[in-house]
Amino acid sequence: MKLYYSPGACSLADHIVLEWIGKPYEAVRVNREERKQPEFLKINPAGAVPVLEDGSWRLTQNAAILNFLADSFPEAGLGGDGTPKSRAEANRWLAFVNSDMHPAFKPLFGSTAYLGDEGAIEKSKADAKKKLRGMFATADAQLAGKDWLIGQRSIADPYLFVLTRWAKANDIDLSGLSNLERFFAHMLADAHVQKAMKDEGLA
């Protein structure tokens, strides 16, 4: 398998999962400018990472890739405990992180620059930070008494870790979210997480 990634992007979640699985894979770094070039656009016309290649087959979209990896390597236990309810819980929290939290960062990454009004742009960023604070508080409550979002390690955890890194880099208020902070420290101490981060130049 081959993973196309950009350092520190949401593709880091897939990178961590591949390390957790422990099977051979190749990681290919693609920077923002390279993602706009014809060579990469042939791989993913959307010009985005992650992309996972399995032989001649290519898969895009983080949630799809993470679920594919969990299903392809069930022995890694990243899709729940084998019961439908546990699988649904893994997907519930993956959906929360992927579909609710991730898009909420967009104003912080320039999506409202088109407004052309500095006051309006700054207001959109402040609103995003406030919304994200509430979402991280939801994750913090879910982590009470747990090391992982669903009580065992799953495909949702590395994605939350990535977004927590983004939150810290963008001055989102995480004060008082002690369960989240404990989770983040737990992830940072993981040797496989460290390996993926080192490979991406993030360590």
TrEMBL record:
GO terms for molecular function: transferase activity. Residues 1-77 form the GST N-terminal domain. Pfam families: GST_C, GST_N. The keyword Transferase applies. Keywords: Transferase. It comes from Luteimonas gilva. Belongs to the GST superfamily. Residues 83-203 form the GST C-terminal domain. InterPro entries: Glutathione-S-Trfase_C-like, Glutathione-S-Trfase_C_sf, Glutathione_S-Trfase, Glutathione_S-Trfase_N, GST_C, Thioredoxin-like_sf. This is Glutathione S-transferase family protein.
